[in-house]
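Bug #77: duplicate submission created two jobs. Keeping one. Sequence:
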Amino acid sequence: MQRVLFGAIDIGTNAGRLLIGYVLTNGGYSRVRQTQLVRVPLRLGDDVFSTGSISKRKEQQFVNAMKSFKFLMKSYGVKTYKAYATSAMREAINKDEIIANLYKKTNIHLHTIEGEREANLIFSTFYTQKLPDHQYMYIDVGGGSTELTLIFNGEKKDSKSFSLGTVRTLKGKTNPAVWDDIENWLRESKIIEKNFAAIGTGGNINRVAKIHQKKYLEPVTTDEIETTLDEISKLTYDQRIVDLRLKPDRADVIIPALEIYLRIMKVANINEIIVPKMGLADGMILEQYFDNIDKNNFF
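Kept job's structure:
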């Protein structure tokens, strides 16, 4: 079968990402293989959570990033791509103007997607690897929202998006009542009464797995997350960049991110989290792959 490259542009609250990759099927599992990954620290949430809209300065940075993404996809020979925006863009008052202007300048159709759609795309990566037989809760902590998905016997039972994220927290825009909503949802789903493990997606939990030198699908424990959080919290912002080699836009959000992971896991009585290093962009590529197989395109 011909190897076809797909593109996934994921415009999040903290960063914009372009993933170029192909899908390899082996042993009944279809997994995304990365050819190129580019991450630009747009931090759209800084504007949206402060003023409600995206500034002209931030818009120009955003458009420049998208132009570079398009040129890079053309250089690689990407066949098709999708561009999705999540929490910050969907909450921006001027999102329609931003999206229209982006199309005018780049010919890129950017679609805002709701939290449930985001959770479903992330969940689609569940079937890309053979995981131990268990009940799972997917936890994806982003800059503006957190998506939770419950999996019983290999099937999705429920999912929900909450207005809880790292940039939102740093800007002081998190409503404390969201934690009551999360706990009530988990109790209604009876997850607290069952033996669950977590699956974590997002750059911050990936970093913890890297710090603890975890092998593929080897779980990270809550004790290890707490240890990492304690050690990072003792460092200044500059020390995290120099000593831990964190990117500037990672050095501040990693603390609220780990606090969110820990609190959710403790509420759910979960002690371990598997970190497969898959996320929304992987789900976007899988979506294109299966859509084109159904239509007998490319292959």
